[in-house]
Design a protein that fits this description.
Helix content: 10-25%
Number of strands: 10
Strand content: 25-35%
Number of helices: 5
Largest sheet: 7 strands, antiparallel
Structural class: alpha+beta
């Protein structure tokens, strides 16, 4: 189980072929619209049908629910892009429609502004019920999965709500590497985490594999993928796979 106090992993010294390339892909907020297939972790609160087919803690590639990794197993991935988004969400008890009412990439939007402070992140429905709307900031990474049945698949890994700090840790770790985003290799796995209110959930965690940098022979291919996805994002040409 992950500890309540999670330290940011110290980055290793980069090889020369990456160290002199700058921080390409990590300079500014990208004008991304909507991403691509999404990484989903099966939770104890997930739909009964999903829990009957997959163990809690399984990492899935949605929308097809292909297993990326079983619970606690590690998978290697290369990050290609990262960006922020903000969501206006229904109360989980509200079954009247899809739980994300609206998503934006505009930091000056009403949703983004309300998501920034604790006092404004919730808003009552105003219908006499106890349900509340949520305004949530999401840290998103587009990664290229290297292992298993999903090897070669791009996928969006999103950190929000209680998981937001883990995404912030990953962002800081990549920034401190001081190399292009696509020069990094990560290990991803799931584990149960617990917050200060004793709420528990399955969270995607990250670490460095034995070979934390992409091979020199893969740099140009991964750079081309980074630029291709960046261009597609800027054109608003990529759609997202919805979660259950």
């Amino acid at each position: 189980m992950a500890t309540k106090k999670d330290e940011v992993m110290a980055p290793q010294a980069a090889p020369a072929y990456l160290a002199n390339a700058g921080k390409e892909g990590l300079e500014d907020q990208l004008p991304v619209s909507q991403p691509t297939p999404r990484i989903k972790v099966v939770q104890a609160q997930s739909a009964k049908e999903l829990r009957e087919e997959f163990a809690v803690g399984t990492m899935l590639l949605q929308p097809d629910n292909v297993v990326i990794a079983p619970p606690r197993a590690k998978v290697v991935a290369t990050p290609l892009l990262r960006w922020l988004s903000w969501q206006h969400q229904r109360d989980r008890k509200d079954q009247s429609g899809f739980w994300i009412l609206e998503e934006t990439l505009e930091p000056a939007s009403r949703i983004a502004i309300k998501a920034k402070t604790f006092e404004t992140r919730t808003e009552p429905y105003g219908d006499g019920s106890e349900m509340t709307y949520k305004f949530v900031e999401c840290i998103n990474f587009l990664v290229l999965i290297e292992d298993g049945e999903c090897a070669g698949s791009p996928a969006v890994l999103t950190f929000s709500k209680g998981g937001h700090k883990y995404g912030a840790n990953l962002e800081r770790y990549l920034q401190r590497r001081n190399i292009p985003i696509y020069g990094n290799r990560l290990e991803l796995w799931t584990d149960e985490v617990v917050n200060k209110n004793d709420d528990a959930w399955e969270q995607v965690l990250f670490g460095a594999p034995k070979s934390p940098f992409v091979p020199e022979g893969d740099v140009e291919r991964l750079k081309a993928l980074h630029l291709e996805f960046k261009q597609m994002y800027e054109a608003g040409a990529i759609s997202v796979a919805a979660e259950e």
